[in-house]
Q: What sequence folds into this?
């Protein structure tokens, strides 16, 4: 009896006739405890790609062949990054169906991996950096938007933008010339900009030295407040 009750509650009434659009909504409910940015990525993938194109398919119609063709179309029309996101979400969705006994195996597992060629970031040649930063400092619009100090911080540390925007005065030791990177700023749909009390990855938490030029910028900023 207890086993039957547990299976019933976890199954969520997913059946072979359940449409993928409904299954997607159930999948999102299982991810409610994830980071807002992650859930937002799942939701956008579902709303912009999965539901409009294959949301009307039933679980029983979501075969490896059909889902594979959908992924191939996404690669062609939206790029490999969007296709990888679709594959990950579909795998999670069909995992929900499999745990509900609506399918025997997860059909997404048999879809070929998606190759993604990355050109990689292009580094700014070191001799050009002073000229670039001088142009940034002289730009009236950047000053009006209060972007200059942020860009100076980025150039001096190599930190992610979200990490720089999350730095508070308590994280700085201007006497020692260090900054503790312990937080991150993200934008989540429907919630705006959020300050997370952790970095993007566990390894991202670190204390780094900052050059005297940035210390001077930060001292001037601190005295201005």
A:
């Amino acid at each position: 009896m207890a086993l039957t009750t547990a299976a019933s509650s976890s199954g969520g009434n997913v059946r072979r006739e359940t449409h993928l659009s409904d299954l997607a909504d159930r999948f999102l409910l299982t991810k409610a405890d994830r980071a807002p940015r992650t859930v937002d990525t799942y939701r956008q993938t579902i709303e912009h790609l999965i539901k409009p194109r294959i949301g009307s398919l039933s679980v029983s119609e979501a075969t490896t062949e059909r889902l594979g063709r959908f992924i191939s179309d996404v690669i062609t029309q939206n790029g490999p990054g969007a296709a990888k996101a679709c594959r990950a979400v579909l795998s999670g969705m069909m995992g929900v169906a499999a745990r509900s006994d609506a399918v025997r195996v997860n059909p997404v597992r048999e879809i070929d991996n998606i190759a993604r060629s990355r050109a990689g970031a292009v580094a700014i040649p070191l001799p050009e950096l002073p000229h670039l930063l001088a142009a940034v400092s002289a730009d009236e619009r950047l000053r009006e938007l209060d972007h200059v100090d942020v860009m100076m911080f980025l150039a001096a540390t190599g930190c992610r933008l979200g990490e720089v925007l999350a730095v508070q005065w308590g994280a700085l030791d201007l006497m020692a010339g260090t900054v503790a990177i312990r937080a991150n700023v993200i934008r989540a749909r429907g919630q705006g900009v959020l300050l997370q009390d952790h970095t993007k990855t566990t390894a991202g938490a670190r204390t780094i030295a900052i050059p005297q030029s940035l210390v001077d910028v930060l001292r001037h900023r601190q005295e201005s407040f």
In short: The first strand starts at residue 172 and ends at 173. Residues 69 and 169 are 52 Å apart (CA to CA). Strands lie at 172-173, 178-181, 184-188, 192-196, 206-209.
